[in-house]
Amino acid sequence: MIFMCTSIVYENKENNFFLARTMDFSFPLGGSPIFIPKDYTFYVDNDSKNFDVQYSFVGSGRHIEDYLFADGVNEEGLGVASLYFSDDANYTALDDEAEHFLAPHDVVAWLLSSFKTVAEVKKGIASQTIKAEECSVIGNVLPLHWIVSDQKGETIVIEPTKAGLIIYDNPVKVMTNSPDFSWHLTNLNQYNQLSNTTLKESSYHHFLAKGNGAGSGALGLPGDYTSISRFIRTAFISEHIEKVGGFEESINVITRLLSSVFIPKGIKKKENGKDDYTQFISYMALNDCSYVINYYETNQLFKVDLKKMSRTQHEIKEFKCSKELQIELLQ
């Protein structure tokens, strides 16, 4: 199975940070924004894995035996997103003797529940074991890796590999899917000719080759939907896109940025004929401690104010979002 997602960290003019991602999958995941209060206990399959929520959080999730999350932000401004890492994810075997461990699909909730900063995550995850445990929603072991960012913009990538759990600092603030993150960084060296300027004229003996006008500096920018190309395209656009101030303005710019990797239905077909498409885009405002989501079917954006929820809400709350298209009639 090959599924696609793209994630970025955007810094606005006010030095506020946003972790955002596309969720690309081939069947409806049925996720919705869910608020988890402090002191809730996650009861997962093995008692040794149960953990308490130290920091309330909100993210895109679904309730099965317990709550599973694809991403989210906590009350301290730590943001986490899980993306597919097919063919490369390598977990500890289920029969390993480690008493305390996590399943891949529990990592997002555990990180958001337990840590305030990326520095804390680095220390905490280093001693954690992630076992190859099946996710009941999908029916197999989810091959995942994770991007984590905080209110200072510190960003890391966590990847389970044959060599163990690898933690990378993420200087480009982008993550997609396989190959591994270090491969993507090396590959980025092949595109250092890209720019947001116009190419200059070049002489070839007695022939003067003129540039193709505005945008010609981006000639060679990959345009397909593979993980490799999406990484390059997103890194380039993220580097040059305008820096704006304000919450709503930042959400708008991030939407335009991720539109370059948004996958409509029909563009990417699986072997069984099903569409792999962008089911939603989620935005985690790390300094504002809020969560925004936009679904494929609608132009509406839905926001959860985590600071307010943490003060007033002491029970789990799942939000239902309308997926109707909103069109204003002018008269």
Automatic annotation (TrEMBL):
Pfam families noted in UniProt: CBAH
InterPro entries: CBAH/NAAA_C, Ntn_hydrolases_N, Peptidase_C59
Metal-binding among keywords: no
Taxonomic placement: Bacteria, Bacillati, Bacillota, Bacilli, Lactobacillales
Source organism per UniProt: Vagococcus carniphilus
Domain of life, source organism: Bacteria
Protein name: Choloylglycine hydrolase/NAAA C-terminal domain-containing protein
Gene3D superfamilies: Penicillin V Acylase, Chain A (3.60.60.10)
GO MF terms, alphabetically ordered: hydrolase activity
Residue ranges of every copy of the Choloylglycine hydrolase/NAAA C-terminal domain listed in the record: 5-309
PANTHER family, per database record: CHOLOYLGLYCINE HYDROLASE, HYDROLASE
